[in-house]
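As a warm-up, study this chain.
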Amino acid sequence: MNKTVEIRCINNGVTKDYPAGVSLQEIYADMQLNMPNVLAAEVNNVTKNLAFCVYKHKTVEFIGLESESGRRAYCRSITFVMYKAVRSVMPGLRLRIEHQIANGCYCQLIDEDGKIVEASDAQIAAIKADMDKTIAADLPFEMEEMLTAEATEIFIKEKAWDKISLLISMGDIYTSVYKLGDLYDFYDSALAPSTGALKLYGLQRFHDGLLLQTPSASDPTRLDKFDAQNHLFDAFAEHARWNALMGVSNVGDLNLKIRQKNGSDSTILNNASMLITMAETLQEKKIDAIADQIVSDPRRKVVLIAGPSSSGKTTFSKKLSIHLAVNGKKPIPFSMDEYFVNRTDTPKDENGEYDFESVYAIDIPFFNKQLNQMLAGEEVELPHYNFKTGEREFLGQKIKLEENSILVIEGIHGLNPELTSQVPEENKFRIYASALTTISIDDHNWIPTTDNRLLRRIVRDYLYRGYSAENTINRWASVHRGEEKWIYPFREQADVMFNSALIFELAVLRTHAYPIISEVPQNSPAYPEAHRLLKFLNYFTPIPECDIPATSLLREFFGGSSFQQ
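Now compare it with the structure written out below.
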């Protein structure tokens, strides 16, 4: 008797029986969904490529560019096409995807000595022509599962050392790899069924490398407008230089450092402990440089610190205050949240819910009035916002700026010109703080900065706010929309950017985040993201919490900080 499996298709609500072993591609064709650009499918809330074969009853939802998972599949797939083109046009060079910026992905071409090679206009045109040819040929992306030893041998022949270090550090017996033509590569999740699905992309020169653009999240029929984001690029580049100093650029490098307690390597960075020490020292040096920049102009009296959720703004403001004090200043730190309007006056979003992310949730006139009073030498009583009652209170906290005083104000709207429109520009110094992850899984699998911040927030929400990972993940899209509306448009107006990411931190967060995320049930809307994060965390060899100093910014999220929370 032939076994059948029941497939419930979410897209059309149809349930049908199929022979066991049927592929998702066959199911899609039979369902006649006629989606414009199907890229992959969510099978029991886990992303799978369309070649995946089904042997048990499943729910299946086919996805395209309208979903985050679909957009990730598109990005991975076009990266493979670009890798193939670079190997053809500029043989001997590595393609490294550094990070997302300027509404695209910044890519570098690197020679065997690790030096960046700048492509000529003719070479860029040739790479794009080769990509177009591959896309027009509609070649399949074929997934193969093989012994890790076999995959390692393939990557040794291709001199893909980044993948070799990752596979060695993972220690798995079998590995899934993808093949395009005669070229192999490793990707951390599903690719599109074939290259013909990748018709929309952009490729242009960007600094010393290239910018690869993919369809817009808001409108998949177009590319997002190019935005140079030079300050942000410089912040990423600074940390890339730090990574080079520490000899770590990808997860495989990091894992090998963590596992090496002592050994034949005589360099100072021969284990995780020294790596942590150097990373923390480099970050402290950056904070010290920012403090020096502030005090170089005595007119600067108002330091405004802004950044997206879980950027470490609170600990950074306290660390910066210490460095300002070392410079002979008297820092007065406080939070912009104390200037919220009463809850009844809070603006509402399109769904009729209170929009606490809006700049108009702040009492802007009162905030400006008090800042100018303080700058004029007057004593003012700072407000306290009672989050339980939703009303402003005054508890007798009065301050008066002295000659060496500096206000250190932390809040998400610090860079928005409207917030301090009545305060003279010469009195202000703006800082954008965020966790700008610069370590990658390997050359072709980068880590979005939002993943770093989401993991921080999952841990902090669970430990200090009583929220489950399911709650945090379900709210994250709304948080991100607020950041795109109220924070990101103003970040290039910062006087300086501070990258709060630490190269080792994901190996530390793994220990805390993994059990919390594992609680998300499979039938939850949050499960696809939870499953992706768990798979991602598995790449990291964990670092125990006890190795992290009490002064680390990272301790803001899991406790043990020497800074009062």
